[in-house]
From TrEMBL:
Entries under PANTHER family matching the protein: GLUTAREDOXIN FAMILY MEMBER, GLUTAREDOXIN-RELATED PROTEIN 5, MITOCHONDRIAL
GO terms, biological process: [2Fe-2S] cluster assembly
Organism from which the protein derives: Pneumocystis murina (strain B123)
GO molecular function terms listed in the Swiss-Prot or TrEMBL record: 2 iron, 2 sulfur cluster binding; glutathione disulfide oxidoreductase activity; metal ion binding
Keyword Iron-sulfur annotated: yes
GO cellular-component term (any): mitochondrion
Protein keywords: 2Fe-2S, Iron, Iron-sulfur, Metal-binding, Redox-active center
Span of domain Glutaredoxin: 50-117
SUPFAM superfamilies the record matches: Thioredoxin-like (SSF52833)
Name the UniProt record assigns to this protein: Monothiol glutaredoxin-5, mitochondrial
Entry-linked CDD domains: GRX_PICOT_like
Pfam families per record: Glutaredoxin (PF00462)
Entries under PROSITE patterns matching the protein: GLUTAREDOXIN_2
């Protein structure tokens, strides 16, 4: 023990030194969207009554969940002028920001009339129970059979 005391005296550190960790106001695990990203997301949501944030494009989804969301939405005759998709892989700020904006950790994310609906699992569930059709009808985005144009 004398040897230890001698070593600590030479380094000017007390033998029973106590380190106090004080709480901080900084949260290391909380993320917030920057104002610019929030505005960009809000502008995307205002651009169309139906907005799907996905990985890839409707023609080439780059994940199974995004593909499932597109397949479900393709079961309806949604007016293309009222349906917007955004490939989150092209903008990392939107990719991370949309998760914070909705407080939902995964992509894809569907919004109808500016309201977050959910991901592909919820989309499948509300498709099965008929709620998705009601939401799309209420948003006024479904084409009437007589108005569908074949190109």
């Amino acid at each position: 023990m004398n040897l230890l005391r001698k070593l600590f005296k030479q380094t000017n550190y007390p033998l029973n030194r106590h380190i106090t960790i004080r709480p901080s106001n900084i949260s290391f695990f909380s993320r917030e969207i920057c104002q610019e990203t929030r505005i960009n997301i809000q502008n995307l949501l205002k651009a169309s009554p139906v907005v799907l944030f996905m990985k890839g494009t409707p023609e080439k989804p780059l994940c199974g969940f995004s593909n499932a969301a597109i397949q479900i939405l393709n079961l309806f005759s949604i007016n293309p002028a009222k349906f917007l998709t955004f490939n989150v892989l092209e903008d990392d700020r939107i990719r991370q920001g949309i998760k914070e904006y909705s407080n939902w950790p995964t992509i894809p994310q569907l919004y109808i009339d500016n309201e977050f609906i959910g991901g592909s699992d919820i989309l499948l569930e509300i498709y099965k129970n008929g709620e998705l059709k009601k939401l799309l009808n209420k948003a006024g985005v479904l084409l009437e059979l007589g108005k569908i144009q074949i190109i």
